[in-house]
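Dear colleague,

Following up on yesterday's call, I've attached the two folding results inline so they're easy to grep. Please treat them as preliminary; we haven't cross-checked anything against experimental data yet. The first protein's sequence and structure tokens come first.
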Amino acid sequence: MNTELHTFQDLFDTYDWDEVRERSHHRSTAEVEEALHRAGHGKPDDFMALISPAAAPYLEDMARLSRKLTLNKFGKTIQMYIPLYLSNECQNICTYCGFSYNNRIPRVTLTEDQIDREVEIIKALGMDHVLIVTGEANRTVGVDYLASAIERIRPHFSHISLEVQPLEEEEYRTLANLGLHSVLVYQETYHREAYKSYHPKGKKSNFDYRLDTPDRLGRAGVHKIGLGALIGLEDWRTDAYFTALHLHYLERRYWKTKYSVSFPRLRPAEGLIEPKVVMSERELVQLICAYRIYNEHLELSLSTRERAVFRDHAIHLGITSMSAGSRTNPGGYAEGEESLEQFEIDDSRSPSEMANMIREAGYEVVWKDWDRALHAV
């Protein structure tokens, strides 16, 4: 890696979106076959070949190779997690999100008692890995609120992840010391000009601050960083290539950190725009397999945004982590759909139903895969 790079942005600024888009759509069959030959140890250009239209005829070969690499590295296991929405308050206008500031909906931020009720129900479902989610509202759900929530739920869960507004490096360090394990931060799209049109108001409109967030997480020593782009906003191949490039940079600079990638496709929600780009399920399979063939160590996560039948098949292709029983509105587990959800889910199966499906497929359900005490040894 170029030692003169201080952040990913230094590398990102050397690329041109249109040039990457052109290249990602025009790879040759020879480049695809070379990428398959380097399976598990590829470079970003190999990944580009694997997501190109030229790789589509190789999908069955890619699926078999992705499955083999996943079994070798992860065994027949699927880690389970569940989101815990603490607030739908948000100061951003985002054209694709039900929590958008200009969406005139009842706003809810859970109190300590309400958090306790959610935790009680989630624990009764058997879950031990919780993903804390909020809108982006620093005044009401800033780092103090998040710190208090993590301290409150920490005794009940072995694995706490966070998907909230980007924070400062020292704030991440504070939350990690309180028991935060991993942080998911999606760039949404790496198209700088289009990004502004999707985020016209609020702190999230700052493209560069969001782009620098994984660097702040790496410097803060957060155990795991989750990356991804929101599929449906811009050309998915170009956004996927920049995500892979981002991952490539981070793994070399913050080599002690673990990494995961998710594949959120745009879902219906109150006041939502229609997807600009529609990705087929076949293309989603190609993308999942491409990530696995590119990087055998990467954790790949698939949420309840996808339909049940697709998720059933995806566990054989390279996916290592899945959510189940999700409610995307604050208080959703205790109170049902009393507050607006962030987006509609597709797979509504309960955690026990998901666990049964995973076992029937011959896989082991993992409720907990990490322990802070062991990590410190």
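Below is the second protein, in the same order (sequence, then structure):
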Amino acid sequence: MSIPLLSEPESELEETKAPASDTFSRRTFVQAAGVLSAAATVGLPELAIAETPHTVAPQMADLILDINGTPHTISLDTRTSLLDALREHLDLTGSKKGCDHGQCGACTVLLDGRRVNSCLTLAAAAAGAKITTIEGLAQDDTLHPVQAAFLEHDGFQCGYCTPGQICSAVALLDEQKKGELSRVSFETGKTSNPSLTDDEIRERMSGNICRCGAYPNIVAAVRAAAGVQA
């Protein structure tokens, strides 16, 4: 009868105990696999690349902008907005920078007679068009009828939005004369040469915000410029 060298519990423990080198290998493998899996999940390599700072040299372009009947030749970064070109490069500061997101209408100018938000219009895209700003509406010392109406009906308070309001109103009157329709035209069913009611004016001027709340006077000014009685 042989005598066991180890007691029974010690023998079982010895049998279940893995070699030190084997335990290290499995643990290392699990840890490495976890790190690699997490990196693949969150895209760490791509994130690191995206955060790497880099600069792109501006692409310049020579443009001819026809503004208020005068051609202007300027060299601009192709990313320059029409508003910045007017204000920062040509010193035509009548067009105002309000929200700079095309929501307030303070920067409204006319492009071939149609109103646009100059903050959302690339200067390069305006090349070849006839651009009209608030500075180009008056003829010498004679105000445009819309400008005169705004003065007569006190259609401004602080005046910051006024250039955009007036440019927008000038285009509005032209659109109405051409029979172009608004949402109100369809809602009222008056789609055949709709008259310029106050509701029509409010709807057609809704892209221009007046933070002073001079809306009643603005509507009155547009109505007067259109020759419409209240």
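For the second protein, one point worth flagging: Confidence is low (pLDDT under 50) at residues 1-18.

Best wishes,
A.L.
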